Amino acid sequence: MSEVAGNGPVLRGLQRIGATSLFALELLAQCGPALARPGLIVRQIYNAGARSLIIIMLSGIATGAVLGLQGANLLQRFGSENYLGIAAAFGLLKELGPVLTALLFAGRAGTALTSEIGMMRATDQLTAMQIMAVDPMRYVAAPRFLGGLLAMPLLTAVFNVVGLFGAQLIGVQEMGVDRGAFWSQMQSSIGLSDVNEAIVKSLVFGFVASLIAVYEGYHSDGTAEGVGLATTRTVVASSVLTLLLDYALSAVFL
Amino acid sequence: MGVPEQQAAVQAATQPAADDIVVDAQDVHYSIGGREIFSGLTLRARRGRITAVMGPSGTGKTTLLRLITAQAYPDSGRVSVWGRDVSELRSREIFAMRTRMGMLFQNGALLTDIDVFENVAFPLREHTTLPEPLIRDIVLTKLHAVGLRGAAELMPAELSGGMARRVALARAIVMDPELLIYDEPFVGLDPIALGVILRLIQKMNEALGLTSIVVSHDVHELETIADDSYLISEGRVVASGTPQELGEGGSPIVRQFMSGSPDGPVPFHYPAPDYVTELLAGEGAP
Asked: Which CATH number does the domain housing residue B10 bear?
């Protein structure tokens, strides 16, 4: 981007943050009018959400299985294997679910969003819309942003449920933890506030990842190299911000 | 007679009435990143006529279209469309102005996630509340006009370059615009597709009473359809008149461009140091 060129890396970074913030305001202003076309948003929830389901479920079950395996192994050393249900649920709901879903989202849906909008820029589709007196912020950017924002909590919920199933599968079926203790301990210790934390985190991560993906695509150079670089920036920025924000949010909720 | 005198003479002989002028660019100066694209460009497009804007590659022909469609504004000078200075328009007025114009992009610029029918229907759905049966009839009429009614259900990726451009043309005329702008409509087309596009441009202008601006460097194609022609070089209009007048053109640059000669004021080589000096300077280098 030409307006973010020159000067030192710190200044460039600040300029990028400023440009992204202004873009976010413009995008939020267009979200209201974009809601008038729910069909476009539903299609983007499908693109960002339903099409990410397989990777989310596979990752969820693998993560849960590892939690079940390592958790049971560790807790058995102290004779506390009955607490595996709480450990798995805490880990998944509050940290692993939102964070891993956000990282996977950035890699799967975020890159797809950036490259799609970048290619629309490269092939003059966005310009053509402007000439047809249609604002691409309203027609292209806002529905994709809203689709990503709404898909993230849904994907996180799926990740968590599948992850708990994976933890139970390995912890109970393979490692011999008592099934009743696994579920009853979880039920008695996990409250609504823990679920809320997962929802808030997933919404924040969904906001950040979708905003970055749409911004990078919208402002990519209209070349193959430009779209490639924008896609890379989407993954890097989304992933780093997700991890930083996760710490901040955890500290707030604690 | 020099180029400016010749230009002034042509303009004086064909001075149109003010309300007859759709696009009026006066003494336009425009630079991108320190590089001057236009340095005093002046041209007009008149109502109901096909105006050709020609020039070697890289002379800013597409930039001119960006100025006319208010995607960019001149550093100085004035670009007026339908008598309004585009740099004074608010965004709402710019959108209103754009609903009266259609533009055919070099690559078609069709929306790739919807089919041909929906692409043509797109402006109608965005700007009107017409009932679905009427939208269907209008879209099929426009597709029929470009000979692609049978391709309504195809996706843009399934179209050839010529077909994509025809669909884009159907989309450009679906709102019945008063001004139709073509950006390099002949690039990369086979002779048959090229003939079809040429015929369509002419037919659209005659049948719909449009004003057309065709930006291209394909001299011979434009000669057959253009009513008025402008030749741009080095940021300004170097010749104007009918294509025939340009063909008989006076200045060396006009003659070179119209005849397609590699020798003339427009050099074959990009500016570079002396060839022999540069080669010898490399001797002894690793």
From this structure: 3.40.50.300
Residue A53 Cα distances to A45, A59, A90, B23, B186, angstroms? 11, 10, 22, 53, 45
* pLDDT per residue as tens digits for the range A16-32: 889 999 999 999 999 98
pLDDT, tens digit, 9 for 90 and up, residues B177-191: 999 999 988 887 778
Choose the closest CB to A133 out of B95, B105, B109: B95
Please tell me whether residue B250 adopts helix, strand or coil conformation: coil
Is B49 within the bounds of a domain? yes
* A132 → closest Cβ in B107, B112, B123: B123
Residue B223 has pLDDT above 90, yes or no: no
HSE-up of A36 (CA within 13 Å, CB side)?
A: 7
Which are the contacts of B188, defined by CB distance < 8 A and separation ≥ 6? B161
ipTM above 0.90, yes or no: no
C-alpha pair distances (Å), B16 with each of B45, B68, B177? 10, 19, 22
- Give A124's contacts in chain B (Cβ within 8 Å): 105-107, 109
State the total domains in chain B: 1
Residues of A in contact with B33 (CB under 8 A): 2
